[in-house]
TrEMBL record:
The lineage of its organism: Archaea, Thermoproteota, Thermoprotei, Thermofilales, Thermofilaceae. Residues 3-234 form the ABC transporter domain. One of its GO terms (biological process) is carbohydrate transport. One of its GO terms (cellular component) is ATP-binding cassette (ABC) transporter complex, substrate-binding subunit-containing. It comes from the Archaea. Keywords: ATP-binding, Cell membrane, Membrane, Nucleotide-binding, Translocase, Transport. Signal peptide: none annotated. GO terms for molecular function: ABC-type transporter activity; ATP binding; ATP hydrolysis activity. This is Sugar ABC transporter ATP-binding protein. The chain holds residues 1 to 238 of 363 of the full protein. The keyword Iron does not apply. The keyword RNA-binding does not apply.
Length: 238
């Protein structure tokens, strides 16, 4: 599904967290919001998910204005930075949870959990509890739980930031392969890490103080930054 912003603004009191954002994210695109801490990236994702309502403008998913559509009625999955798993549930039940909540039949739940676990290489972990897993394994479980319903739009908020450097680099490629190449979902990914953005994105929106400064492919951002903020952030040599 495509996702668009038309003149979207979000304020928290006097603070303008998101300022007049206009964007069109294509179906199947791997789209990255890149910006420093506090630039409004999470707020943008939360607006797409329906966890925040914009003060001005429209959010459009698949051609429909969704400003007032309940989060549970949007065909969207969200993975947060700290990907909290349910500690008292086995991995299997963590992954099955979104389907159980929606009262899927037992057989279908079983098939879908196994499929998701297979994709993320965690079938051998299904009977374990979260505390028995490493950070990277927990992250895979969180991803399996998010893809189990095969959402059309996938939102990820700094999903790799709690992992060690080596795993982070490996998961960049795996995530893109899974979401973009295998599932062909529309993925909207937030990070402050320019290397992550440059290696994963089809297109990047560089965000500063709530505003979209430039939207382009990694190559074009690198070669044609519109200003010194983008150049500095992308790391273009002088
Ligand atoms: P980022 O994800 O890029 O670090 P955020 O979207 O979390 O940035 O925040 C953007 C700005 O909005 C920050 O200044 C933050 O403090 C502020 N902010 C975010 N959420 C709230 C909230 N619920 N109440 C008040 N201020 C908020
Ligand atoms: Mg954030």
């Amino acid at each position: 599904m495509s996702v668009s912003f038309k003149g979207v603004t979000k304020r928290f009191g006097d603070l303008i967290a998101v300022k007049n954002v206009n964007l069109e994210i294509q179906k199947g695109e791997f789209f990255v919001f890149l910006g420093p801490s506090g630039s409004g990236k999470s707020t943008l994702l939360r607006i797409i998910a329906g966890l925040e309502e914009p003060d001005e403008g429209e959010v459009i998913i698949d051609g429909k204005v969704v400003n007032r559509v309940d989060p549970s009625k949007r065909d969207i999955a969200f993975v947060f930075q700290n990907y909290a798993l349910y500690p008292h549930m086995k991995v299997y039940d963590n992954i099955a949870f979104p389907l159980k909540m929606r009262k899927y039949p037992r057989e279908e739940i079983h098939t879908k959990v196994l499929e998701a676990a297979e994709m993320l290489g965690i079938r051998h972990l299904l009977e374990k509890y979260p505390y028995q897993l490493s950070g990277g394994e927990q992250q895979r479980v969180a991803l399996a739980r998010a893809i189990v319903r095969r959402p059309k739009v996938f939102l990820l908020d700094e999903p790799l930031s709690n992992l060690d450097a080596k795993l982070r680099v490996r998961l960049r490629f795996e995530l893109r392969k899974l979401l973009h190449d295998q599932l062909n979902t529309t993925t909207i990914y937030v990070t402050h890490d320019q290397a992550e953005a440059m290696t994963m994105a089809d297109r990047i929106a560089v965000i500063n103080k709530g505003e979209v400064v430039q939207v382009d492919t990694p190559g074009r951002l690198y070669n044609n930054p519109v200003n010194t903020f983008v150049a500095g952030f992308i790391g273009t040599p002088p």
